[in-house]
Amino acid sequence: MLTSYLSTMLKNKTKIAIVGGGPAGATASLFLSKHSIEHTLFEKATFPRDKTCGDGLTMEVYRTLNEIDPDLADEFVNLDFVKKSGGAFLGDINRREVDFDYRVEGGISPIFVAKRIHFDNWLFQKTKLSTCSTIKEGIGIENIKRLDKGFVLTTSDGEEFFDFLIGCDGERSVVKKYLTSEGIKKKKLHYAGAIRTYYRNVVPKRDYCPLEIYPLNTFNGYFWIFHLPNNECNVGIGGLSQEISNKKINLNREFDCFIRDNDYISERFKDAERLGKNQGCGIPLNSNRLKYYGDGFILIGDSASMPEPLTGKGIGVGMIASFLAMPTILKALEARDFSKETLSEYQDSVLNKYEKEWDALYRYVPFLSNKIVHWAIFNFCKIPFIKNLHSKHIATVTQKMMVAKGYEK
Ligand SMILES: Cc1cc2nc3c(=O)[nH]c(=O)nc-3n(C[C@H](O)[C@H](O)[C@H](O)COP(=O)(O)OP(=O)(O)OC[C@H]3O[C@@H](n4cnc5c(N)ncnc54)[C@H](O)[C@@H]3O)c2cc1C
Q1: Domains of the chain
Q2: Residue 389 has pLDDT above 80, yes or no
Q3: Does the CB atom of residue 168 touch ligand 1 within 6 A?
Q4: pTM for this one?
Q5: Which residue has the higher pLDDT, 344 or 95?
Q6: Distance between Cα 356 and ligand 1 center (Å)
Q7: What percent of the chain lies above the pLDDT cut of 70?
Q8: CA 20, 25, 28, 34 torsion: positive or negative?
């Protein structure tokens, strides 16, 4: 066993680069710092930078922050740009409604809504507080050359050598492009397309619950209204790219029609003010099960196609995956062995936690727009036993978190 002094020396001799400072990359940096591991984080944008998203932050976000530092999790829930949600509301144009109430008396909220421009900036700035991190903001990676051992990264600033790379650079990942056979080709079957825009003064459906989801019965996807602080909300629509393309669906038109042509929705937008243009982006889904590792590198978050196929949510999973990667990284550092054999343990940890859930969700996706299934969802979810089972499950997990303030598998 290495003495901790020697171990720290070895860890710090290894040159580690994180590419991308979104939620996955910032989280990876915070965990490396927590373990006193020196590293460089390259982020091509200058923060605050926006990211097209629904702005819904799941329980996994809180869990991961709590794992980095319980004070960080406490700070997060009290930020003025974060809105707490006590549940989720499901509705459809036929005025069928289901409420999922996740509130635990006196407890923390299980879900949050926060504009990414604020949340990502808050998290990114935290990475700068450690003496172990060198943050290269506004410096993107343009090329990656593999050597016998290690890599040369080309940036706008010149070239730099690294032993180990952590690719957190999102949907169009350069790490994936240069180091995997997958490249960055879009596979429509395993992609979702979505657009969103901000509004002010949309009337909320429920006070306790800023998350409103409306499954569509025209194609596999949903319309959402996620309420933010200051009477603002994130409104969007999205679905599977393959179907959008095959049916020649124009998302901008669908979005406008959904609001305009359904009384159930339009009555709530009567006094609403649109705060900008629709922004669109692709979501790489985990139905495309990539290899999250190779010799000398790992991929985390969207660069590894981690978002869920049913909901498109990917922030929390990227952050949790950064946490789950740490034991493998520590082991590789100690052994000075960044071979794919060693790094494969990271993929096992992620799949041990998520594979069953992801596979189950993927199976539901093709049926969602089917009218009978749609009808069944609303009626099935209304059965008190089913509804309570789901709500109780979330409430119980939340309660446990509150008590233990720790991460549970
Ligand atoms: C319309 C829409 C709605 C969504 N809604 C939700 C939601 O409500 N909840 C949810 O959980 N998820 C949602 N998602 C998915 C979510 O946005 C992503 O899963 C999440 O952003 C992934 O985080 P990440 O850190 O992996 O990547 P990103 O957030 O994309 O961050 C990648 C970072 O890498 C940087 N970068 C890129 N290339 C380079 C380079 N060459 N060099 C250096 N830096 C680089 C980028 O500037 C960026 O800061 C939505 C997605 C879309 C498109």
Answers
A1: 4-187+285-401 (3.50.50.60)
A2: no
A3: yes
A4: 0.92
A5: 344
A6: 24
A7: 84
A8: positive
